[in-house]
Amino acid sequence: MNASAGTPATHDGFDVARVRAEFPLLARTVHDGKPLVYLDNANTAQKPRCVIEAVDRFYRERNANVARAVHALSEEATDLYEGARTALARFINAPSAQELVLTSGTTMATNLVAYSYLLPRLEPGDSVLTTRMEHHANIVPWQLVCERRGARLKAAALEANGELRVDEFIALLTPEVKLACVAHVSNVLGTVNPVREIAAACRKRGIPLLVDGSQAVPHMPVDVRALGCDFYAFTGHKMCGPTGTGGLWARRELLADMPPFFGGGEMIREVRIEGSTFADPPARFEAGTPNIAGFVGLAAAVAFLESLDMQRIAAREQVLLDYATARLQEVPGLRILGSAAHKAAVISFLVEGAHAHDLATLLDLEGVAVRSGHHCAHPLMQFYGVPATCRASFSFYNTEAEADVLVAALRKARKLLV
Ligand code: PLP
Questions:
Q1: 182 Cβ contact partners less than 8 Å away, ≥ 6 residues apart
Q2: At what angle do helices 400-417 and 310-328 cross, to 10 degrees?
Q3: Angstrom distance (rounded) from CA 412 to CA 6
Q4: How far apart are the C-alpha atoms of 203 and 205, rounded to whole Å?
Q5: Nearest CA owner, ligand 1 atom 5
Q6: Which of 71, 199, 251, 366 is most buried, taking the most CB atoms under 10 A from its CB?
Q7: CA neighbours within 13 Å on the CB side: how many for 385?
Q8: Residue range 15-33, pLDDT digits in tens
Q9: Which atom number of ligand 1 is nearest to the Cα of residue 183?
Q10: Do 247 and 269 form a contact (C-beta atoms < 8 A)?
């Protein structure tokens, strides 16, 4: 029996059964017929049929390289690729599609900012400000360029409940800070950071702000204009799109002033052996053949999310978060890390006397896929003094029944481990 059975098809006006039917993988079983309960959405999301079919159709009917040849197929492929840029720009309300660099994901986006924006501006004694809750993709690139320039990385602390100490973050925005960076939503705690407030404080001090939107874009309406940040990075595979896709939105004037990070085909104006001149953004930052089929799939994912309505997705996931949190709190010895007032449907937890990896292994045997480990957030684990947590991360296609399966599996695992 699928875990969606036994629950009403419609939740808060959101037809979960119909939505689930769009995701072929959700129907599969694991470990001798256990229905899959996929709660690892913060890691990567499953793909709806329309995304799978868009990629398939591209390779069957449209495959060609972009922006190079004059033949019909190449023009069609170019139109699809640029159409994805337009769709993504609209999705995050960017002022112009030309301000959106298509990347392989958030990691490539933060590295692009590190090497192309930050490195040329950093001097000894400068610093970059981040927080203790960041993914390594929003820590390590800054460290690498800081090391080259004799600059340093600073990190604002958190409250015990996983909220950012915003006052401390703002107090650390001192004149030597050349870039401030913050997650829109924490991938471990689910904390939704007050980006508008932070952006206003940065703007007042003339410090550009990069927002890591990896865990926000798939789960809530995002409006980069309203947020008031300067760079916004996101990744396609967490928003039901293919892996190896994502983007960096940046203000036009910042992009215009950034030298290329990668060199190669399609990012140039003219190449002579003595030296080259470069294309305008965003092409300047998109050297080489991009993941064309991936972006065709990501455009389909955007259309799918838009058809469901991001506002309704966010509301549905809040209902799931509240339900799952209450049910998990019934499990003896279970502690949830992260109880911010504004929180996305990501629940990190520990069970007293059980190691996170052992728990996740036993949950897997019951068909429940959660992630265990440090979640690419070592400094956050150090803050809580734990080596690892289990993380159940929900998407709009999950159900209350699946949260029940998680809780039952946890009770069973606890009996074996504790
Ligand atoms: N930032 C956050 C908050 C994430 O959750 C992730 C992925 O787990 C990343 C950055 C890195 O994304 P990607 O591996 O797609 O580049």
A1: 130, 131, 134, 138, 164, 169, 193, 195, 198, 209, 210, 211, 212
A2: 30
A3: 21
A4: 5
A5: 187
A6: 199
A7: 1
A8: 999 999 999 999 999 999 9
A9: 3
A10: no
Regarding pTM above 0.90, the answer is yes
The domains of the chain, with CATH numbers, are 10-35+309-417 (3.90.1150.10), 51-306 (3.40.640.10)
Q: Which atom of ligand 1 is nearest to the CA of 237?
A: 15
Q: How many A from CA of 74 to the centre of ligand 1?
A: 31
User: If you measure from the C-alpha of residue 107 to the centroid of ligand 1, how many angstroms do you get, rounded to a whole number?
Assistant: 7
- Side-chain half-sphere of 126: how many Cα atoms within 13 Å? 20
**pLDDT tens by residue, 89-114:** 999 999 999 999 999 999 999 999 99
Single-letter code of the amino acid located at 126: D
| pLDDT tens readout for residues 177-208 | 999 999 999 999 999 999 999 999 999 999 99
Q: How many CA atoms lie within 13 A of 23 on its CB side?
A: 26
Residue carrying the six token digits 């983007």: 247
**Ligand 1: lining residues by beta carbon, under 6 Å:** 42, 105-107, 135, 137-138, 183, 187, 212, 214-215, 235, 376
Q: Which atom of ligand 1 is nearest to the CA of 42?
A: 5
Label residue 69 by pLDDT band (50, 70, 90). Answer: confident
Quick: pLDDT tens for 149-187: 999 999 999 999 999 999 999 999 999 999 999 999 999
Can you tell me the mean pLDDT for 257-277?
94
Q: Distance from the CA of 381 to the center of ligand 1, in angstroms?
A: 16
Question: What values do phi and psi take at 61, rounded to 5?
Answer: -120, -20
Active site residues: 376
Give distance in angstroms: CA of 156 to centre of ligand 1: 20
Please state the atom number of ligand 1 nearest to the C-alpha of residue 375.
8
What distance in angstroms lies between residue 170's CA and the mean position of ligand 1's atoms? 24
Q: Report yes or no: 397 and 16 within 8 Å, Cβ to Cβ.
A: yes
CA–CA distance, 394 with 11 (Å, rounded to integer):
15
